[in-house]
Amino acid sequence: MEDIALKEMWANYDKKLEKSLALNHRLLTEIQTQKARTALRPLKTIKIIAVILGILWSLLLLVLVCLALSAMTYYRHFFVISALAITTATVTAIVVYIRQVMLIQQIDNSMNVVETQRKLASLQSSTINIARILFLSAPFYTTFYINKSMFEHGTIGLWVLQLTVTTVFTAVSIWIYRNARMENADKRWFKFIFGSSEWTSVIKAMNFMKEIDAYEKE
Amino acid sequence: MTSSKEDNVFLSVIEQHKGIIYKIANSYCKNTEDRKDLIQEIVFQLWRSFGRYNDQYKYSTWLYRIALNVAISFYRKDSKRTDRTSGLTADIIIVAEEKEDTGPQLQLLQRFISELPELDRAIMILYLEEKSYREIADILGLSETNIATKISRIKNKLKNKFSTIHS
C-alpha cells in the first residue's frame, strides 16, 4: 500500500462525503444561541461547590477547635489534634481545587493540541492528588471522639478495638498515599479503589500524559 | 463584525469544513449516537471560540485545532457515556446515505486509523488531508522533525496492517 494509494483513497472518501453531507441549519442556529453552554462549565461548577463546602467544613472544625481550646483539658487533645489534622488535609485539597479552577480558566481549545491536552490531562490527573490527601486524613476520623469517659469507663475490649481500627486506618491511608500513583494505574487494587467511570477518565488522562511526554522526547 | 454578519460567516465556515468535522468525529467515535454528540460539541466549541478567532491562522488551522482537541477529550471520557452534552437530539451534519458506500479498502483504512493512539490518529488524519508538515506541527504543537518521524512510522504501521490482511 503506497502513500499515493492511501491519499487517493482518502480523497475519494472526501468526494463522496462532499456529495452526501448536508448541514442542519435549524440546529446550527439553535447552537448559536447557546453561548453560555461549555463542556467544562459543569466541572468548574462542581469544583467551586467543593471549594465552598471545603471552606465551610474547615471553618466549622476551626470553631469547634477554638471552643475546645477555650476550656482545654488533657482529654480534649485528641479532638483538637484530630480536627486540626482534618482541617489541614481539607485546606490542602481546597488549594488543589482552586488551582484546578484556575487551570480550567486557561484552557482554550483553539490552542495547539498538545498544549491543550496536557492542561486537560493534568487537570484530570491532579484529581488523584486530592484523593490521596483526603485519604491521609482518614485515621483522624477514628480518634477525634476519644474523651474522658472512654478513659474512665472504657474496657480493654474497647481499647483493643479502638487501637486496631486506628492502626488499620493509619496503615491503609499511608499506603494509599504512597502508592496511588500513575505507575500503579494498571494494578488490581488501584482499579478496585478508583474503578468508577469518573476515575477511568482520570486514569486515561494520566496515560495520555505519558504518551504526550514520550511524543515530545522523540 | 456585527452579530448577524458573524453568524453568516460562521455558517459558511462550517459549510465549507463540514467534511473535516465529520471525518474527525468519525475517526474518534464509531458509535452513531456518540458521534452525533461529538459533532454537536465540536460545532458548539467552534461557535464559542469564533468571536476570538485569530486571523493570523487559517480558518482550517483554527478548525482542526478545536475539532481535534474536542474529539480527543471526548474520546478520553468513559466509553459507556450516559450523559449527553446537550438536549439537542437531531444531527447537525446529516449523511444522505446512512450506509456510506466506501469500499472495503477505505473501510480498512478507517478501521486502522481508529485503532491508532489519539495523537497518531490526529497526525494521520492531517497527513491524509494533505496538510504540510509545518501546518501539522502548528496544529499539534510539535516540531516538524518530530512530525516527519511520526508520519513515516505510522505509514509503515498501516502498510504492515494492509499487507497482513492481504496476505
Characteristics of this structure?
heterodimer; A: 218 residues; mainly alpha; 9 helices; elongated; B: 167 residues; Rna Polymerase Sigma Factor, Chain: A; Arc Repressor Mutant, subunit A; 2 domains; 7 helices; globular; transmembrane (chain A)
CATH homology-level superfamily of the largest domain in chain B: RNA polymerase sigma factor, region 2, helix turn helix motif
- List low-confidence stretches of chain B: none
Helical fraction of chain A: over 70%
Encode the helix/strand succession of chain B as letters. HHHEHHHH
Order of helices and strands of chain A: HEHHHHHHHH
Provide the number of structural domains of chain A.
Answer: 1
Give the tally of β-strands of chain A: 1
Number of strands of chain B: 1
Determine the most extensive contact between two protein chains: A-B, 54 and 70 residues
Task: State the major sheet of chain B.
Answer: none
Q: How many whole angstroms does the radius of gyration of chain A measure? A: 26 Å
From the N-terminal CA to the C-terminal CA of chain A, the straight-line distance is: 26 Å
Transmembrane segments (chain A): 48-72, 78-99, 120-144, 156-177
Keywords (chain A): Membrane, Transmembrane, Transmembrane helix
Keywords (chain B): Sigma factor, Transcription, Transcription regulation
Organism (chain B): Chitinophaga filiformis (Myxococcus filiformis)
